[in-house]
């Protein structure tokens, strides 16, 4: 039996970069960020002075995509989602950092520049309320809406 939710979870776990679309006082913006997921929750970091961080502070509703750079339409697979971002503090921030470091070991390097940078950045959690799995290998334009309650 085919389970689109399981395929979507596997896709999230197997990829590293999402393109985050935000909107705020300066208009719409898109930025690529590394993420780690815990279930459907997507954790990422960003410096507070960036345009997308300023936009998220003004309006926490965002959209995002996760995909590879395919050469043929029939190969296209990916995730499209929309949801709400929240700034993390305390235990939630610590949780995100631990999980992020498991996926991206380079953040544990003993270089002062990385440690200093990680101490200054904001950590965020994107909670999707709509998520779609696109898979053109199953038919052109194939898109499954995922029930996030599962």
TrEMBL record:
Domain Pyridoxamine 5'-phosphate oxidase N-terminal spans what residues?
6-103
UniProt-listed Gene3D superfamilies: Electron Transport, Fmn-binding Protein, Chain A
Extract the SUPFAM superfamilies matched here: FMN-binding split barrel
Q: Enumerate the Pfam families for this protein.
A: PNPOx_N
Write down the InterPro entries for this protein, in alphabetical order. Pyridox_Oxase_N, Split_barrel_FMN-bd
Q: What is this protein called?
A: Pyridoxamine 5'-phosphate oxidase N-terminal domain-containing protein
Q: Which organism is it from?
A: Candidatus Promineifilum breve
